[in-house]
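Hi V.,

You were right to ask for the full record rather than a summary. Here it is.
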Amino acid sequence: FQNYIDHCFSPQIRYFSILRSMNEFGIFQKFIKHSLYFNIFGGCNNATEEKRWCGHCPRCLYNYIMLYPLVSHDKLEHIFGGDLLDDQRLLPSFTNLVTSGSSSPFDFIGAREEIIYSLQLACGQAGGKYPILLQYFRDYLNNPNQQYNITNFYNPTHHIPQEYLDLILKS
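Predicted structure:
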């Protein structure tokens, strides 16, 4: 897109996304440092003014999974209105997320590898007591021989100006 802007408009116009250099897990890792926003962020397609997360859709479940190993469970339950990994009704969505990484191209759900990585981290932290869906992952979907380490992901194709990139890499 930057090439298009350079060619058709002006090379003086810079188009970039700070998030483009990171994967979803990296974005979540940066987000958790700003707990001030925990009660106001949202991303559910079924959200209302009173409730930012419906707690029943793949998008809610995805965000819950990605935050699960990073944020205390009390905070997560407060944000999402309950323990989504302990809700049997979400098993079809959960299985779809783990096996394909998405339920719809419009759900804006991250890569399957990131979901599995987050669940594997969660299993390691659970201490033997697993919510229903995490237990299901552990028993039926997890391949312990398949390990993903996506924490140091960096996408060099981002067009971020160096002064902003320096700030991102420091945080």
